[in-house]
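Changelog-adjacent note: as of this version, every example in the card shows the full chain rather than a window. The one below runs 855 residues end to end.
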Amino acid sequence: MIRLGRAFEPSSKDDVHLLKIGVEQFKVSPIDLSKAFKNHQWARENIMVGVAAGQNDGIGQLQEGGLTALREELQRMSHLIFSGRPGDRDYWCGKGVDSEKEIREKYKSLKPCLHGSDAHDLDSVGRPDYDRFCWLRGDLKFETLRQICFEPERRVFIGNEVSEDGFPSHTIEKVKVDNASWLENPEIKINSGLVAIIGARGSGKTALVEMIAAGSGSVDQSHTKRSFLERAKDLLEDTTSTVTWGNTETTNFPVNISLLPLESEEPRVRYLSQQFVDLLCSSDGLADELVNAIENVIFDAHSVDERLGARTFDELRSTKTESIKRSIDKYQKLLQDIGDNISVQDDLARNVEDLRKKQANELAAIERMKVDRKKLIPSDNKKLLEKLDQVREATEAKSQTIATIEKKDLKLQGLKEEADQFKDGTARPYLEDLKTNYEEAKLTDKQWENFNLTYKGDVGALLQKELLETSKELVKLKGPGIGEALEAEDKVKAKPYLKSYKDLSSNTYTLLLKEQHRLEALIGVDSSRRKKYTELSNKITKAETALKLRNKEVLNAEAAPTKIKELLTQRKDAYELLIGQIEKEETLLSKLYSPLQERLNSQEGTLSKLTFSVNRIVDIEQWAESGERLIDRSRVGLFKGIGTLKGIIKDALENVWKNGSSQEIAKAMSEFRTKYGQAFWNHAFEDAKKTRETKKHWYGQISTWLYGIDHVKVSYGLKYEGVDVQQLSPGTRGIVLLLLYLSIDIDDDRPLIIDQPEENLDPKSIFEELVEKFKEAKKRRQIIIVTHNANLVVNTDADQVIVASRGRHKKGALPDIGYKSGGLENPEIRKAVCDILEGGKQAFEERSKRLRINI
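Full-length structure tokens:
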């Protein structure tokens, strides 16, 4: 350099000055520099190239058009950019004018921006302008500079204070295991990013994550099957695990499985044990567990404001669908009542001729009894006989009137009791139920009183008045009236009790009865005949009362066809309303599950092939089989043979049930009943046809079955390329599950612990699907994985690698287990990755090739 300086300035004799001149004039071409690196291994291993991005120095001086190629060549061969400007950092991380892809195409790789001390006086040392301190994530080793080239954005931070990935209260800082003499280092610090635990099989990898999960209160008895805690339970009786969190909080729990809860109430970490993942991914795995896992993701995707105070997805779904469930119960009860009424009307319509015959027979029997009664009275006094007939008929009419009024009185008494019961036993409890079910409505007691069920008017006073009037009327009808004569002992000599026979109905019952007895005595009816006469009269009275009911029954039977039409219309409408509730539930659940679909729509790769939909699940087979059990399939007819009815139902109703609207389903069911109603009766069992009651019971069963909806439920479906997730292969199920936790489950910022996720996955899926997702997820939550896969350590740029090792097995004791940790920038850790994990060296090489970083 001095010789170069002297050649440039031969007049100078100062070697120091000449050295400065020589350095300033020395120029080397990027091509020569690149060749030098290629030819010198030591240079490649110990030298990194950095260029300054300032406007007045470094490549900032190469702004002329003719120097563009030189400037870009220097930038291409550089590993680092010296700049503290946020704009430069964004640009070289692919967040500026050029995208990541464009940066890599132009300059081979993304570049980390570093900001060092450029102080020109002692007062400025350690006090950079704008507090642009330079923070590097990694060990205090030169190798850390290599590592930041792979993650230029995440592993370098320029600013006053570096922020952690997650919240301090959701970040594990360290774990300490007490009463565990077999642990060589019982206290282990945990990085806040992605932590990979590696080691040979049986070296204690799972033991560490289970201790961490246990100390976080996130292990329960469901996690212990085939686990380390289960296998070593006799050696862990007094062992405890303490986790220290980023906010200095500590949690301490025993690891003795007998002291663990059946289910963790508030787990501080999301722990996917190896057994849990294996079961979820197995071909005969726990479908419900997978569904629950997905539902947890959906629940966490809803903001706190949208959860309506619910603690779980089930609670949220129950709250959202509560009114629908009540409406379904209401319409099912209405359909049951309509069905019962139709059964009664069907019975009347079927038996109208039989009822008419009974009506005629009963009328004829009454006439015969009246003839027989006349024969009991001597007929020599025609006028007396006529009077007796008049009085007797008036007495019987009065008796029936009294019976009607007494029945009215009885009904009024019952109605009064019903009203009192409604007020005290129904309305008040109903209001209390409303208050409980809708407590979150936050209404005052005064406001709630507006919902109190009550009658429009003062029914108590109304009924009391009616009862009083009825009582007065009964006294007036029965007698004895005021001034009414007593019945004489000698009825033959007794004077007439009635002043006139013109309006016999105006007399009291007791007065008419006295007159009837007097006339019977005058005619000469002896005591024996009088007894028979009385008995026959009583029979006639009862028969006439029964005939009145029969007449009413016949009228109802004759009107039954019209009534049935009305009821069928009501049933169709009610059924349509019932199915409408199912449609409402579908719409509501679609909205409830929408966060999952929205996130699926924004994804790429496997997740983009997932589709979500709310489905109406119809078990048409089970429903048809229930119907077949109600009929005699051995009879000749449309439904003869096992499965015949099932086939008819599937052809006529399956498609509309699964895909139709409420109106279409109600119409189809009405048409089905019209078309096959008689066929059902033709196939009724003999026992069902024995009596009117058995017939009604059978019709009721058919109606309840036909208009029930137990075979219909609303659920959601998650499909991968058209195949239900629960039917996927273990490998694909595993990918889906892990992607859900890594990509979709973005609202859960608790630490995620996964024990050997790759066990059910193929290497291609791990590299193509999981690596980038792990890198994205570690930016927002702490992740701890146990793995044998090099890609999950190297290509995810794990922030910390913990290497587990164990000593010899000891009889009746656990082997000594130790843990060594460090970053990928640590040569010892890199060597362990290459030695322990299959394809470790290749993973490092592939990473360099993929990122175009020749280090």
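Structural remarks: The mean pLDDT is 84.
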